[in-house]
User: Which sequence fits this backbone?
């Protein structure tokens, strides 16, 4: 078999595009693809048939060929020198494999029609790690969909993708241009919106989350806006001891989502 050419320059068009896709939400939107990196993310995307193109470091490529000569046979791939791969990577300790994946398209209407809807509503979440953790936790807790404000960090930001640990492939989400209009729609559909708020009542009313419901979580630093809070049906808070006033947004979301899961299993 003819040896595949190895890309050895950062000025290569494909490498430049990889870098753009990782840095620019606009590029991801226009091209309809995003970048995944790392062995776990790669293997899950491969198994699900989601990969568009694969990029491997030279050392990873040679190592895999030693283990399994046909490892790359069914893939559209390129090999990068280790140095070029390291520079193109968005991680501090690259594992040697990345790829591009088609962006998913989820419909808001399907989320709202679900008879067992349990939604996570996120207003102005800015931290990529927080968002990725929430997506991962939402899958684990059985949440049926996530709706984000347009001001939140891009779901396809590389740091968000890594923090999801693969849940990005399976968790339905919708980034709303008019978040408050969507909140009004959710309310009109009879889905009870519970907003995590310092002025709320204790959330632990047994059975309250068994019906169709949604949890509204606000910005890490400022909490929920007055507009979002007004659109919620009920303001709730997590009971806490000591002098702690609030929790990290991802932690608060996790507690509420798993409380809903517990109640629904009863």
Assistant:
């Amino acid at each position: 078999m003819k040896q595949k050419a190895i890309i050895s320059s950062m000025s290569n068009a494909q490498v430049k595009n990889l870098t753009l896709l990782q840095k620019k939400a606009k590029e991801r939107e226009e091209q309809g693809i995003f970048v995944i990196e790392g062995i776990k993310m790669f293997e899950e995307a491969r198994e699900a048939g989601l990969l568009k193109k694969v990029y491997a470091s030279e050392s990873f490529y040679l190592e895999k060929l030693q283990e399994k000569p046909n490892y790359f046979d069914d893939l559209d791939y390129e090999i990068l020198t280790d140095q070029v791969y390291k520079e193109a990577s968005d991680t501090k300790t690259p594992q040697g494999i990345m790829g591009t994946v088609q962006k998913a398209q989820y419909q808001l209407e399907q989320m709202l029609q679900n008879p067992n809807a349990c939604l996570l509503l996120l207003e102005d979440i800015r931290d990529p790690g927080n968002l990725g953790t929430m997506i991962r936790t939402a899958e684990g807790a059985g949440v049926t969909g996530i709706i984000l404000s347009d001001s939140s960090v891009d779901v396809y930001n590389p740091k968000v993708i890594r923090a999801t640990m693969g849940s990005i492939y399976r968790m339905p989400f919708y980034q709303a241009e008019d978040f408050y209009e969507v909140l009004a729609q959710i309310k009109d559909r009879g889905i009870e919106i519970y907003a995590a708020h310092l002025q709320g009542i204790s959330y632990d009313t047994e059975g309250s989350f068994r019906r169709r419901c949604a949890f509204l979580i606000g910005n890490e630093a400022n909490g929920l806006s007055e507009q979002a809070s007004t659109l919620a049906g009920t303001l709730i808070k997590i009971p806490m001891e000591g002098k702690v006033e609030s929790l990290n947004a991802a932690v608060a979301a996790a507690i509420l989502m798993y409380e809903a899961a517990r109640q629904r299993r009863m």
Observations:
- The first strand starts at residue 6 and ends at 7.
- The domain at 108-265 is CATH 3.40.1280.10 (Alpha/beta knot).
- The mean pLDDT is 94.
- Residues 249-265 form the longest helix (17 residues).
